[in-house]
Design brief:
The structure holds two protein chains of two kinds. By secondary structure, chain A is an alpha/beta fold. Chain A has an eight-stranded parallel sheet with strand order 3-5-8-10-13-16-18-20, with helices on one face. About 10% of the residues of chain A have low confidence. Chain B has one domain. Chain B is built from eight helices and 19 strands. Chain B is globular. The model of chain B has no long low-confidence stretch (mean pLDDT about 95). The chains are: A alpha/beta, B alpha/beta.
């Protein structure tokens, strides 16, 4: 055991980026010097710094997008600290007694083991060792398969060719305001490379990635599935995670080369703010994948957290016969606002895409689906099916659908349908008649409503996601 | 800001008549309006370069322009020529209960009254609606008195000679329980630019039958709007038939301002050549128990481009609303383009709303079936296209009008095939 721990620690040291940064937190503000310092902290090569700086220069010229149906006070980008070192042990809560009891109740309901509870709540304990050993076994297994799974800061040093080739290839630096900001100041994130013809031996999860205590608010993920490979990646977890940063602007890039398949599942349950919506996380994420010939990318997301969500996981179906999928459940309550959806850009012949989006609005929240399906002239025989359903719980919330459908190829078929309704009185009556209390009845109906999406999630995630919805909906009935 | 808009503002400032107070408001907004670009959501797919380039100008009323005859329909004609009201061609005698007045002929008191209801239904967001506010001179006010049913349809024609620019504006008021059918059409000879806006105030229990024909093609820039406000238990049934032109943009807004109002909209666009047709249909459910049903179909051939934006907005108080929108499109060529965006914005929970949109090509199996029966491919295509559109034509309440428009549509499909 000790040996394994030492090994894991040594690895960190090898990477050389977790040097003595404990006391280091930048003063708020953003300029080229701050970016130079971030790059220096991470010991990055010159090309990486240049890349960041050019993104920053682009960002300065860009405007904050205002087209989404979300409303939040203007963000002062100069009031944010762009680098904060991991919290030292002594700043952390000493035991679970010091943690918000509300949080603990949620963990309990989700059935999370004590040790994991401590980890999630950020308690300074040594018990994380258990999972370190798990991580180490995982790493060994992955190495055997030739899979690279490491922090992106490590990949910049160890695999510069891959990073140089693919970083920014799917989401260009200038893609949008938040993506440009992310390029300039990202702190860390995951890097995955699956070699040709390899089926990744296990589901990869950020949850098990060591060194991720503080990936910060600007996370960067790059996943490359080489020809004929397969990988399933899980991001986030159902338990509400403690986080000090209010603004999150992550970028995720997926590259599925010929015949490869990437399945990317997300469960997002960040702090949504209090009753009045104060203090919640702003989640402005850019996620996009490119599919080469016969490749497939499947996005599945369960979004229940954050005060403001601005997120459109997309697929560029570049190669012939490639497939893009988007399955989403977005639940908003309280004063949460979610503007989420997907873009399916069909370039290749016989490309296919499926979009299933389920929005549930409760309380005083607003939940929007915003999507784009584009059939380019070359998308001969392409096919899209989109279904967006919204469920309203209570008369103070909103559910909205903004689908853009563009076709420039007559042989392409595009179908879009959307419905909005509430949990019907008949359904409720039927359930209650059979002895279910109203809360259980709503949760059952909502679970049924989301079934099509949940079945796309890896099994244990699906079970948790169902539970998560149930907990999130508590108190919204009546 | 574009030169065209600057000149429009300058011309609007010269107009000094009874509408001056409203015009001043519109000019104020216009002065602060950005000329639309690709990033302007309402004009995302419809570039306005053609308007900026247009050399159309205000021309005097020309004799010799007459509205196209519609057989078996004896309509009460109201005619504009090059933007000016043509008394000679318009109906001399009107049925009891129907009044038609020109704004400038009203007494000062009546003008003050009319000013209060002018431009209240048309939303301010439409750039060219504001241009129309500023430049329309001969404003017509049409009223149907309480409980009166007008048997013949009222036809509002706007005729333009080559190179003419025209801005027409009509306000139609149906008092309580009144009934009226209105046909709107614009006919231009080429290189013209027109904005034609009609506002409908439909009082409680009143019923409006509405048709808008945008059948002129070629080098005409036709921009317009039909805007409806529905009171308690009122009804409207609207049919829009659009062919494209160099630029053809139509906005319809339906506002459910009363309870239990019922709106039906059947729209179709049939585009060929390099035409562009852009239909923006917005329905605002502001009050409970309203129903809306929209069916929009399009066929787009050659290098034509169609834009459809169908927005349904259910306000917080509009409980028990039923609203449905269905948009189906056939794409006939690989140079043609369809951009559709059905939108739902819903703030009330006890409602049933749905929308659907499809884009595809003609059903190959149906085509094959007809060919096996000895029908040539091009004839079969015309038949299938016609059948697709005729389902909506069949829903027109005025059969004589349907009879008139059917061969026009059939002819258009035949032309599409010749190429």
């Amino acid at each position: 055991m000790t040996e394994q721990i030492d090994k894991a620690l040594a690895r960190e040291y090898e990477a050389g980026f977790v040097s003595d940064v404990e006391s280091e937190t930048f003063t708020p503000g953003l300029d080229e010097d701050v970016i130079r310092r971030i790059s220096e902290m991470k010991g990055e090569p010159e090309w990486m710094l240049e890349w960041r700086l050019s993104a920053f220069r682009d960002w300065l010229k860009m405007d904050e997008p205002d087209w989404a149906l979300v409303d939040y006070p203007k963000i002062d980008f100069q009031a944010i600290s762009y680098y904060s070192a991991p919290k030292s042990m002594k700043d952390k809560p000493k035991s679970l007694d010091e943690v918000d009891p509300e949080l603990l109740r949620t963990y309990e309901k989700l059935g999370i083991p004590l040790i994991e509870q401590q980890m999630l709540a950020g308690v300074a304990v040594d018990a994380v060792f258990d999972s370190v050993s798990v991580v180490t076994t995982f790493r060994e297994k992955l190495e055997e398969a030739g899979v690279i799974f490491c922090p992106i800061s490590e990949a910049i040093h160890k695999h510069p060719d891959l990073v140089k080739k693919y970083l920014g290839s799917v989401v260009p630096k200038k893609d949008n305001y938040y993506a440009a900001l992310n390029c300039a100041v990202f702190t860390d994130g995951s890097f995955v490379y699956i070699p040709k013809g390899t089926r990744c031996p296990m589901e990869l999860s950020t949850y098990f990635r060591i060194n991720e205590q503080n990936t910060g608010q600007f996370e960067r993920t790059l996943i490359i599935a080489d020809e004929g490979s397969h990988v399933s990646y899980l991001e986030g977890c159902t338990a509400p995670q403690r986080d000090e940063n209010q603004l999150h602007a992550a970028v995720v890039e997926l590259v599925a080369l010929d015949d490869a398949e990437i399945k990317y599942s997300t469960v997002q349950n960040w702090y949504p703010g209090d009753e009045e919506g104060k203090g919640g996380i702003y989640n402005f994420v850019t996620k996009r994948g490119v599919c080469h010939t016969n490749a497939k990318i499947s996005w599945t997301q369960v979004e229940t957290g954050s005060a403001v969500t601005w997120k459109y996981p997309s697929c560029v179906l570049k190669g012939d016969n490639s497939i893009g999928e988007f399955y989403s459940v977005a639940l908003t309550r309280g004063r949460q606002q979610a503007d989420t959806g997907t873009k399916m850009i069909h370039l290749g012949k016989n490309t296919k895409s499926t979009i299933i989006s389920k929005g549930i609005s409760a309380g005083k929240s607003n939940n929007s689906y915003r999507g784009l399906v584009r059939m380019n002239p070359g998308a001969e025989g392409a096919r899209n099916f989109t279904q967006c359903d919204s469920l309203l719980i209570g008369d103070q919330c909103g559910a909205h659908t903004f689908p853009y459908v563009e076709s420039r190829n007559p042989s392409a078929i595009v179908e879009h349908e959307a419905t909005t309704s509430k949990v019907s009185d008949e359904q409720m009556f039927l359930c209650q008649q059979r002895g279910l209390d109203p809360e259980k009845a709503v949760s059952m109906i909502v679970n049924g409503f989301c079934k099509e999406v949940f079945k796309e999630l890896p099994m244990e995630f699906a079970v948790e996601a169902g539970k998560l919805l149930e907990i999130s909906l508590e108190g919204s009935v009546g | 800001m574009s030169e065209w808009l600057e000149s429009a503002i300058a011309r609007g400032q010269e107009n000094q008549d009874w509408l001056a107070p409203k015009r001043a408001q519109a000019l104020d907004v216009l002065a602060n309006t950005q000329w639309p670009t690709r990033k302007t959501e309402a004009w995302r797919y419809t570039p306005l370069r053609a308007v900026e380039r247009s050399s159309a100008k205000a021309l005097d009323r020309e004799s010799g322009l007459t509205p196209v005859a519609i057989p078996n329909v004896s309509a009460i004609e109201l005619v504009f020529v090059n933007g000016q009201f043509d008394v000679l061609q318009s109906a001399k005698t009107l049925p009891t209960g129907l009044t038609v007045q020109l704004g400038q002929d009203l007494s000062a008191e009546q003008q003050a009254e009319a000013l209060r209801s002018f431009s209240n239904i048309k939303p301010e967001r439409h750039l060219f609606g504001l241009v129309n506010d500023a430049l329309a001179k001969d404003v017509l006010l049409v009223t149907v008195a309480e409980g009166i049913k007008i048997a013949e349809p009222l036809r509002i024609s706007s005729l333009l000679s080559t190179g003419a620019e025209s801005h027409t504006r009509v306000l139609v008021r149906l008092e309580k329980g009144a009934q009226l059918a209105v046909i709107e059409d614009v006919q231009s000879q080429g290189d013209s630019l027109s904005t034609a806006f009609v506002e409908y105030d439909v009082a409680a229990d009143a019923s409006l039958e509405h048709y808008r024909f945008a059948l002129q093609t070629g080098s005409n820039l036709t921009i317009g709007g039909s805007h409806f406000q529905l009171s308690d238990k009122s009804k409207m049934h609207s049919t829009i038939v659009g062919f494209g032109s160099e630029l053809s943009r139509l906005d319809t807004d339906i506002i459910h301002a009363g309870e239990f109002a019922d709106a039906k909209l059947n729209a179709m666009y049939l585009l060929d050549g390099k035409e562009l047709f852009d239909l923006h249909a917005t329905v605002e459910h502001a009050m409970p128990n309203g129903t809306t049903e929209e069916n929009v179909r399009g066929i787009v051939a050659d290098r034509a481009r169609a834009v459809f934006n169908g927005r349904i907005h259910i306000h917080r108080d509009a409980q028990k609303t039923l609203a449905e929108l269905n948009n189906r499109n056939l794409l006939m060529s690989n140079k043609a383009e369809i951009n559709t965006k059905p939108e739902l914005e819903i703030y009330a929970d006890d409602v049933r709303c749905a929308h659907g949109a499809t884009i595809a090509e003609i059903d190959k199996q149906a085509l094959y079936y007809l060919e096996t029966r000895g029908i040539s491919k091009s004839k079969a295509q015309v038949m299938l296209n016609f059948g697709f559109i005729n389902e909506l034509i069949d829903l027109m309440p005025n059969e004589a009008l349907a009879e008139w428009v059917r061969p026009i549509i059939r002819e258009r499909f035949a032309q599409m095939e010749v190429k």
